Amino acid sequence: MTEEKKDKEDKEEENDVFPFIEGERIDLVAGNSKWANLFCNWINNPKVRHYSRNIWPQTLEDVKKRFEHSPDRHIRDVASFTIYHKQEKRPIGIVGLDNINWVSRNANLFALIGEPEHWGKGIAGEACALVIKYGFTELNLHKIHAGIFSPNSRSLRAAEKLGFEKETIIKEAIYIDGKYHDNHRFSLLKRDWQKSNE
Amino acid sequence: MTDDVIPIFIGGENIALVPLNIENIKLYAKWENNPKVRIYSRNILPRTVEELKKYLEPSDKRLKNEVSFEIWHKKDKKTIGFGEVADINWYNQQAYLGLIIGEPDYWGQKIGEEATRLIVEYAFNELNIFKLKASILVVNKGSWRCAEKNGFTRVATFEKDMYVNGEYLDNYEYSLLKEDWLKIR
Description:
The complex is a heterodimer of chains A (198) and B (185). Chain A is an alpha+beta fold. Chain A has helices at 3-16, 36-44, 46-52, 60-65, 123-137, 153-161, 190-196; strands at residues 19-22, 26-29, 79-85, 90-101, 106-113, 143-149, 165-176, 179-189. The N and C termini of chain A lie far apart (49 Å).
């Protein structure tokens, strides 16, 4: 690729990316169906899906469906963002809240860094911190929870760093690579988050 | 019908809130089209039974943006109106309270007051609503007095807000915060 062409592509990319929440190294941006191929690669990648517990092959069509507009009268129970690396100017993962319960005001936090070379740099932690703030200060949630499986020691540490408390262990709750693993259920209450963010 | 076949959802002193019932659809149509009743509920289009039936169809929505009840008169064993938590905004935890006593014979008996009390309590304690609103025509004195008796405060008057029978009428906006309701309860 010539310099010129690359510049032009960078420019186009920038015009297409709309930061919704700005972070330090990353921005959280609205998803874009032009990244469907990329997402499809992440979701199916054996290294990535091992931790995100995806055991079903996902077709490109399946992934594209996620970008489809849902009817307005359905209240959404998911708020999902693409993690966009500011310096590298490219999407590197997905983060968000799902299973939002609007009556009891709680939701489940999820994060996936699709590019393994970005693992271990605290980027998922940065993305999660932004989403937690969003959940409490914009969605007015009361509690955010997360489920992490035993082999994912990096996420277990990250959860504690973010202020999550371990609520319980659900024993042998998931079958990964020939073995049953425990589900460590973490949670964070808004009042506790506020105290530690004063 | 007797009390034991009525699926009471919330019981009050004189009335109970029960789920809507497709068997009563003609009754609903009667109320919604009744000139005396619809003037206050500002229903300006004829409502067919088919339309109402559609409304009662089970929806696959996981979370509704309105919840409606029948108002059941316990002593007279009769369905006399509707109550609803409508236009629920789940993001901001707000909703509108709506009420129709469809049988004019039951007006002026404080039934609206009791129904309002039951619906307010349901909205705050079960739906986790933060703020309830009501939009009531100034001429509809019975309704806004019933809101005031339940702690609602008038927050705005919208002049010439609704076109009713050839003229524009003023409209009040009422609101009740959960935190204020907890104090007066």
